[in-house]
Structure formats: structure tokens, C-alpha cells
Amino acid sequence: MSLYTVVGSSKRRGFVQGARSRGMVVADLHVHTTNSDGTLTLDTLPAAAEAAGVSTVAVTDHDRLHPELPTPVATVDGVTVVHGIELRVAADDLQVDLLGYGVRRTPELESLVDRLQADRIERGRAIISKVESRLGTELPVEPRAGIGRPHIAKAIAAASEYSYGEAFEELIGDESPCYVPRDIPGFEEAVAVLDDACGPVSLAHPYRYDDPEAALELCSELDAVERFYPYGREVDAGAVERTIERYDLLATGGSDAHEEALGAAGLGRADYRAFRAEL
Question: What is the pTM of this model?
Fold first, then answer.
């Protein structure tokens, strides 16, 4: 049995269930820190990895390189830490997330990240201003590098009667009154930059998009796809398995952790060995 149990027969394609079993995951390759919108730091990460029984973690902060990870792979208190990045990109009418692993700080990547962070700060300032005007209150949050809507939603919950979820649903979510769009690089631009700066480049959580099949078609230009992910629901695994075979892709996987718990999804030993060989 693997991290996800695949059930079914020829009459029912295999479905992926997010059943986690301690010890099966050795590498959690999708983790966020306080450098973007997570709560982990490099100081707290080793204890979280030990608690989850994982030996390798990829730090994949949104649109940002980690300032304390100068090399593509590091060891932090006995834990192998892969320096990665997660980029939201636009492919025609579809927006998807790409995960780059084993980051080197090329001029092109640093320029792209600087551009995206400058836009994040201005976007954060605009959203905060709209919310404060609408609610007639001051939010306990300042525009800064790495800021995202989760930071603003937490501030809204602290300063008003809105909950975190309601802040998204009624104020700052897509098409909500205080929403402000952000700069999103094109797919081809992002892939070119990541290909030059990283090892494997993977499509993140393909079943989270409105059109998973269209998202998976983009894998023809990538090295990998996130095969293991805690969707919290059953999803048809057939399409991603066929995509892996069709384009000879690596399987990646991770918990997309924004808090302390790691290992809800990730790679077992065999898949991690294949990933590490390419890294």
C-alpha cells in the first residue's frame, strides 16, 4: 500500500484517496514558510519533519526565494531541505501553479521574483486600503515582501466580525468587492526561467484546477507532475497516470503545508530516489 490507496477495477478507474499512513512518506516536496504565507521557519522545520517521519522537505514559497537557503539543497539539523519555489502562471485562460526544485539564483529568476514581489506589495496595499475603507477600520497588517491574501484575511478576522473564511468569501476573494488582481507571468516565460534556474519543474496539484485535463496537457513542456497531494476528496487518478506515462514525467508530491504538520502527502522511497537523481 502506498500513501494513496488506489481502488477500483476495469469498470471503475483508480481513485486517489488522501489516506495518510505514518512512515510511508519520506519526502514532502511542497511546504511553505513565513517567507510567504506559511508558519514554519527553517528553525522549526526540523522538528516538524521529525514529527512527521520525513527526512526531506522542499521549501516552495510563493513567488519568492528563501533568503536563508543559498544553495539548491541544504541540510538543516539532519533534514535534507530542497530549495524550491512555487509560481502562479497564466496559460491562455487557465492559471496554474508550477513548482521548481533545486533553485539556483540566476539573474533572470531573481529579476522575475523581484517583479512579482513589487507587485505583491502594491497589490497588498491596494487590497488593505479597499478593506479599510469598506469596513471603516484599520487592519493590523502592513504591505511587505511575501504578502498575500491569507495575511490580509487573518488581519480582517482580528479587526472585525468577519471570520477568515468570510473575509475571502465576502471581501477579498476573486470577484469580491475588495479583490485586486496581481501580476502573473505567462507559462512560457516562467518555464524558460525555471528551466534555466532549477532541476525538475513540476505542475502542482492538477486536480485543483477547473480544467484538470487542460492543465495536464501543459506537462508536455515540464519535467514532472504532483502525483500525491491531500485534496481532501477522491479524485480520478487515471488522467495523471496517463500523463506521467505519455510524457515520461517524474512523480512529485507534497502536503502543501502552510502550518506545522508535514507529511500529509509526499513521496515514498522509490519515487524519491528517482526525483533525487534528477535533482
Answer: 0.87
